[in-house]
Specification:
This protein is mainly alpha-helical. The protein is about 60% helix and about 10% strand. It is built from 2 helices and 2 strands; from the N terminus they run ααββ. A two-stranded antiparallel ribbon has the order 1-2. Strand 1 and strand 2 form a beta hairpin. Helix 1 packs across helix 2. The longest helix is centred in the middle third of the chain and has 27 residues. It is rod-shaped. The mean pLDDT is about 90.
């Protein structure tokens, strides 16, 4: 899944509100966890796609951004 639909985003918000007000059942907690994972994945893909389309102009040439190596500590 690459994109969240409005129904899924609304459900994330409903579960967050219910969690603050009265708490969630174990099934609702699992649903919330899965929806949040999907949301984060869709956000990262969207951000990566946007960054992949950025170019820098240097000396009259367009140079695409390059990916940096990830730092592991």
């Amino acid at each position: 899944m690459t994109k969240m639909n409005q129904r899924q985003i609304s459900r994330i918000n409903e579960l967050a509100k219910k969690s603050r007000e009265i708490g969630l059942t174990p099934e609702e907690k699992e649903e919330q966890h899965e929806l949040r994972k999907q949301y984060i994945l869709a956000y990262r893909r969207s951000l990566t796609a946007a960054l992949d389309n950025i170019v820098i102009e240097k000396d009259g040439k367009e140079i695409p951004l390059s990916k940096k190596e990830s730092i592991k500590s």
